[in-house]
Design a protein that fits this description.
heterodimer, A: 448 residues, seven-stranded mixed sheet, B: 546 residues, two-stranded antiparallel ribbon, 23 helices
Chain lengths: 448, 546
């Protein structure tokens, strides 16, 4: 019962300043370099946009069974054999380390945080700086309907590896149907429908947002500096939504590859690996169309959680517990069940790549105009190692990246890969990270 | 009669405490908070302001638990861009429902002369009245004007008064003034900073009812009655007599026991075919009903929740507990486990043993960790990065039970330090498998449920419950959680003695929850505030009594 009807209650019963606190030195000019350099153009004549995304998996690789040590080319072994058809689209970065400067290795956490923020966390669960996708989205996300699209295949929105800080962690979409509704439901302007009128509600929604924004000064005066920063994030998001609404009122450019996809079938959500894989594939198909339709330019896909809870039906052990408790098979030299899961994870990554490659765009594919930053949180889960964490870049980023290379890091900080990726995406960053993870060394071998 | 006797005893006890010098220690308070409404607070507020029939169809961003509580994490939470997007859409959905035919007649206090024309007076009345509940304070004229102007513009565009008003309401519902609970500080005549009346009303309301302040509480704030303790006591008594107090207590235990984790609990259906979504929902409800019955209805000793054999049972739960539980109506029925049954205490209920397990097997380590962290407020260090798992990888291992496997932890110094804090506790619960079902054997081996906690040895789960009941850290943990939950922030250094004081009062009141909550809600400390940042105590470290 409402209080408004005067009856008793029933029981109810960009680079935000210094880029969000990340240790970054900026000296390069901020070029308009978010567009393809390969001369590709859309049907409208506009250059093809370059997209950035991440693909996370946990539990690393089985040493000696994933990638060969030769560095003149990538040699995918048994665990990664699903990636062999795409070897020419990938760069593999091996033997890059995560120096922690005496900070503890918070198992299954420190590795991904170091790789994505170039800073080692002090406390468990700590995310001391924005993840690199957030920095890229700050720079690229303003011109599309969605700043970024974040997905988790485990069924738990908390299984997400994109964050501005510990308390601002972007929750992942877990349901293909919910993702569809967000991307292609209300508010989607189909470029195929030329001359369609914008919804008059959009202008009123903009008024609502400006009404909220008007309260900013009055509200922020009442709170301390730390809380003001939290409110700033809220109001910045409101501003971004206004931009999105403005974009929705424009007739979208004709995009040859853009097709409104079919609503995915209703299906289960959960940690059983076949279910996670099915949801991964369904969300991937929606994602590529969202990119082709220029709804976003940044995305994050988490295939499993950091403590991989993926499981096979009818078995007591999860992927993670297998990596620690399964006996090493003396004949093969590895943990057979854990190895099986690792292979399945790489099959999922191959499927993701294939979905991008299947979308024709200009004279190439969507993959050619994308940079996917894929990595794990450990190199060998059995011992929680954070050195030699496997990292890959996939796609040519609009012609700015060479591919097919196996780069040996020789113990250099893993942050070099992230720095290079951000620079490829046009971010004006010269130095990234803190402590021994701080770097200003680009990996020039992969640059065109 | 029982209550009268108790009140007399309480009064005598209070006199004795005062006589013995156990007055509330003075504190400097903590900084004012800016808390994001939790999902349950948002839902309760919408139900209370507009009615339970208004659907809140949304998923909320998770809040990070800080020092054991989402209530403290809410004081650090921000909203992601996607989160803002969802709040805007949710506000639109709620506003549309409120202004729909059938609802607006009840919820809008006036009607325009013509539906197509804009009635500014009516809009102003609606915005000011509704905004007062949503923002938990009266709106400033400029604020009313902002929302009314917005509604007027929208009404002109739509050609409908109520459609226009829906946009004004949407803006209020998506406003950070609604979504964030910002506390206001004023200075009293002596120049001491203190929370203003509306902020006090909101602290009380979130603590005791987990929702926005009601009319009586806002009116008390308006009249300045919450500026002194007599007025606060009157409101606390009223609120604790309300049936809505149960809602508040359920919300507190949901937070303290991390029952929100049920949202993502998953069990392997081929290993545990009896475990279903209905079982998970009922398991959560079972522990809350047990706590309400014991602590609010019967006003029993808090410590007895760890030894009680009484609970309630539903049909779906009966399948997993393997007990007859059907009632003719299909609802909940009282149930008591017989003497000698391993089920004794809430830590043996499904809500604990199933929640703190793997999807396909039990976990003495997870269960031991949960008892330490949730019930004793102790922190178990994270595992070191360089664990040698070779001990576990012997293919010829004869180990059949969890004890066999875990005993190897004790032989590796890098493991034993922490595992000895958890495993000997959790092993007492090994009579319950990963879904919480009772068992006596694992892989054909009789399960040994002996264990130990803080030097107290026991042979089974009932023994663990007794050890917990007698552990002074148990009530101390409840005191700590209840106070920080109420304040919405961590303990401050100046508040250590305050916790000792609450612990003493709690003990003097036979560990009755109502008395503890009342003591906290009517303490000066809860409303004390220091504007300058105050250094907070370290993470959940158990401070020695001073």
């Amino acid at each position: 019962m409402s209080v408004l009807i005067k009856k008793p209650f029933t029981r109810r019963d960009v680079l935000r300043g210094s880029i969000g606190g990340s240790a970054i030195a900026v000296s390069l000019p901020f070029l308009d370099c978010f567009l393809s350099e390969s001369g590709e153009a859309l049907a409208s004549g506009a250059p093809v946009p370059v997209r950035f995304g991440t693909w996370f998996w946990s539990m690393g690789h089985t040493p000696g069974y994933a990638v060969g040590e030769r560095t003149d080319r990538i040699e995918f072994l048994e665990e990664c054999k699903a990636l062999i058809p795409y070897v020419d689209e990938i760069n593999y970065f091996g033997h890059f380390n995560s120096p922690l400067d005496g900070r503890p290795n918070h198992v299954h956490h420190t590795g991904w945080v170091a790789t994505r923020t170039a800073t080692a966390p002090v406390l468990p669960g700590d995310i001391p700086a924005p993840t690199l996708d957030v920095l890229v989205a700050d720079a690229l996300g303003g011109n599309t309907r969605f700043r970024s699209i974040d997905m988790s295949c485990t069924g738990n929105p908390r299984d997400s590896f994109t964050a501005r800080n510990t308390h601002t962690r972007n929750a992942g979409e877990v349901s293909p149907r919910a993702l569809y509704a967000r991307l292609f439901g209300d508010g989607f302007q189909d470029p195929a429908k030329v001359g369609a009128k914008a919804d008059p509600d959009l202008m009123l929604q903009q008024s609502v947002l400006s009404g909220i924004r008007e309260q900013r000064q009055r509200f922020e005066r009442r709170v301390g500096a730390a809380d003001r920063a939290r409110l700033d994030e809220y109001f910045t998001s409101i501003r971004q939504l206004e931009t999105q609404l403005a974009l929705q009122q424009q007739q979208p450019a004709a995009l040859a590859a853009c097709r409104k996809p079919q609503l995915p079938a209703e299906g289960p959500i959960g940690l059983e690996i076949n279910i996670a894989q099915a949801n991964h594939d369904a969300m991937s198909r929606l994602l590529v169309m969202a990119l082709a339709c220029n709804q976003t330019r940044v995305f994050n896909m988490a295939f499993n959680n950091a403590l991989s809870s993926l499981r096979r039906p009818g078995t007591a052990y999860t992927h993670h517990t297998l990596t620690h408790e399964e006996a090493v098979d003396q004949k093969f030299g590895y943990q057979p069940e854990a190895f099986w899961f690792n292979c399945r994870v790489m099959e999922a990554l191959a499927s993701f790549i294939g979905t991008f490659k299947a979308v024709k765009e200009g004279n190439g594919t969507l993959l050619d105009n994308t940079l996917i930053f894929a990595h794990a949180e450990t190199s060998y889960a059995k011992v929680h190692a954070v050195d030699n964490i496997p990292v890959m870049t996939i796609g040519r980023a609009g012609g700015r990246l060479k591919t097919g290379k196996h780069i040996a890091g020789h113990g250099d900080p893993v942050s070099r890969v992230g720095l290079t990726a951000m620079q490829v995406m046009g971010l004006p960053i010269e130095t990234w990270g803190t402590g021994s993870l701080q770097t200003s060394k680009t990996i020039s071998e992969v640059l065109v | 009669m029982k209550r009268l006797t108790r009140m007399v005893c309480a009064a005598l006890a209070a006199l004795l405490l005062v006589a013995c010098g156990s007055r509330e220690p003075s504190t400097r308070g903590g900084p004012p908070t800016l808390r994001l409404l939790t999902e349950s607070q948002y839902r309760n507020t919408i139900a209370d302001v507009f009615g339970e029939h208004i659907e809140v169809a949304a998923r909320f961003d998770p809040i990070v638990r800080v020092e054991g509580l989402l209530a403290i994490g809410a004081g650090r939470a921000t909203v992601t861009p996607f989160g803002v997007e969802r709040y805007i859409a949710l506000a639109r959905s709620i506003a549309t429902q409120v202004m729909s035919e059938g609802n607006r007649e009840l919820l809008v206090p006036c009607q325009p002369a013509k539906a197509a024309s804009f009635d500014a007076d009516c809009a102003e009345r609606f915005i000011a009245r509704t905004g007062r509940y949503l923002f938990r304070r009266p709106l400033a004229p400029a604020e009313v004007s902002t929302f009314v102007t917005l509604a007027e513009r929208a009404a002109a565009s739509r050609g409908d008064f109520h459609e226009g008003l829906a946009y004004g309401l949407q803006a209020m519902l998506a406003s950070p003034e609604f979504l964030f609970v910002a506390e206001n500080v004023v200075t009293d005549p002596t120049g001491t900073p203190q929370l203003d009346g509306y902020s006090r009303a909101t602290r009380l309301s979130l603590f005791l009812w987990n929702t926005t302040p009601d009319e009586a509480l806002l009116a008390a704030a308006e009249r300045g009655e919450l500026d002194d303790m007599r007025g606060i006591r009157r409101q606390v008594e009223r609120m604790m007599e309300s049936t809505r107090f149960e809602t508040g207590v359920r919300a507190f235990f949901t937070d303290m026991l991390a029952l929100d984790d049920f949202q993502t609990l998953e069990k392997d259906s081929s290993l545990y075919p009896a475990f279903s979504l209905a079982v998970a929902n009922d398991a959560r409800e079972q522990v809350l009903r047990t706590l309400v019955e014991m602590l609010l209805v019967r006003e029993e000793d808090y410590r007895d929740i760890f030894t009680t054999r009484r609970t309630v049972m539903s049909g779906p739960l009966g399948l997993v507990y393997r007990v007859p539980a059907a009632s003719p109506s299909g609802g909940w029925v009282p149930f008591e486990f017989p003497e000698g049954d391993p089920r004794a205490g809430i830590q043996t209920q499904l809500s604990f043993v199933a929640l703190h397990s793997h999807p396909g097997k039990s976990s003495p380590t997870l269960r031991g960790k949960a008892i330490r962290e949730l019930l004793l407020c102790q922190r178990v260090p994270d595992p070191p990065g360089s664990v040698n798992f070779d001990l576990f990888n012997d293919p010829n291992s004869p180990g059949k039970t969890a004890r066999d496997r875990l005993v190897r932890h004790s032989t590796d110094p890098s493991c034993s330090g922490c595992h000895k804090l958890m495993d000997p506790i959790g092993l007492a619960l090994e009579n319950f498998d990963g879904a919480g079902q009772q068992r006596w054997y694992e892989n054909g081996e009789l399960i040994d449920t002996s264990g130990e906690i803080n030097g107290i040895r026991f042979t089974d789960s009932a023994g663990l419950g007794s050890a917990l009941r007698d552990d002074p850290a148990v009530p101390a943990c409840l005191v700590r959680r209840a106070y920080t939950y109420a304040a919405g922030r961590p303990i401050q250094r100046s508040e250590r003695k305050l916790l000792n004081h609450f612990e003493d009062e709690f003990a003097a009141e036979d560990f009755r929850l109502r008395e503890l909550i009342s003591a906290i809600a009517t303490s000066d400390a809860l409303y004390a505030v220091s504007v300058a940042p105050v250094r907070t105590a370290l993470l959940d470290r158990q401070e020695p009594r001073t």
